[in-house]
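Posting for a labmate who doesn't have an account.
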Amino acid sequence: MHESDDDSVAATGLRRLTVGWRGDLSAAVAGALLPLAFAPFDLFPLAILCPALLFMAVDGVKPRRALRRGFLFGLGQFGVGVSWVFVAIHEFGDTGVVLATLLTALFVAVLALYPALFGWAAAWLLRRAGTRFGAPARWLLLLPVLWLLVEWLRGWLFTGFPWLQLGYSEEHAPLAGLAPIFGVYGITWACAVSAGVLAWLLRSGRRAWPGIAAVAVLWCGAWGLRQVDWTHPTGNPVSFALIQDNLLQETKWDPSQFQRRLNLYARLTLQNIGNVDVIVWPENAITAFYGDLKSDYFDALAAKARAAGTDLVVGVPLRKKDGKGYYTTLMVLGRHDGVYRKHHLVPFGEYVPLQGVLRGLINFFNLPMSNFSPGGADQPPLLVDGQPAAMSVCYEDAFGEQLLHNFPRATLLINGSNNAWYGHSFAPPQHLEISIMRTIETGRPLVRATTNGITALVDSHGHILARAPQFRTYVLRGAVQPMAGSTPYTRWGNTPVLILAYAILGGLLWRGRHA
């Protein structure tokens, strides 16, 4: 079968977009558009189109040029998508505009090295294999597998930064049906395969019909899986009151504002004790050590909660027993006492790498309470209203595989976050989107309390039951249904996806050398 004349004209026109400076510009623009696939914009088809444009831009060029185009794609992707880092460094880290801009640019440039690595590896392998890689192997297998493995590398190297992975954009799209089986990496891979087929179609027209058929089966199958109930209800619904304080970030360590903070949380907590089963505070709601306030503050709240049949989940720092260091925690007080110590800490925010060298260089590296210690990796769920809850604090719920030790015991998810660092930026809706993916993967409802938004209750299918308005002092009340059972993802984690990806890559490398 041969291309039609119309197909040839279209392919030639599109190929011009990947030649010379046009190819560089196309890669940069595609990267800059990709964040629009995620919250708050939710233009999820861009998670297919933008990588497809990059795939076309790195196909058939020298590795050095492909590396440059991947880097430009990354500058656009992260320069737009994580621009909120500037807000944290400048507005709340007390760092000047010029230095904050330079630090943000450095962070973006480091992240851009990942798509640059993808571009270089793709071009090097394609050039080395020559004609031994036909269109199906190129567009359906090699490029999507490389994309997946580079994204996986970004998710753990140097403690990991899995933000803006393609799979997160699909939580309300048909491909979300893959999450309970393969997790977010499986969805990312499906997006990359779809992008590869789109690039194949744009390059070759009707000759791409086998790939189109494969993607149609993939999307229809994922939609069908979305209708499956992988878990089942257990026990009665649990009612919650989630406290969103909306106090300014710069007042957290202001001594003149400290008593106001204590009074606000006490007042809102007392108003809800006895009216709900569980009250949840956000991360580090009180910026003083638990032991310093235990007898004069927390014991009284816990006693009243216990007498009324309510559990409190409070975000508060906790000193180590030896006094040498401290944790950020979610503590359960009331009928079921327990402590979760945050395990996955944020570099430069909760601890400073090479602090002997860096601390003191700029104000951002010298923030109060910026030397937390990590808690254990396999802490058990905590009981709230008799239900075991998988706990996470802020950013660490972006690492879904680190929650898996909680299952199948845990029946719900609780996350406490402080998103006040990021103001009116993309970060809070992006973070909520990530949190929701954990509910779809595990088949568990989510209870999420934040300082100024987005506080939310989410059911086990990823549907938002209720959410608080941002930047308002608010108590969000509602109930979630605990769920029991196991999804395939909670049993297997990322292992099947990674084994299959490496097997495909190994097979392609063998074919490239011996065919």
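Reply:
Got it, the structure tokens are right above this. The mean pLDDT is 92.
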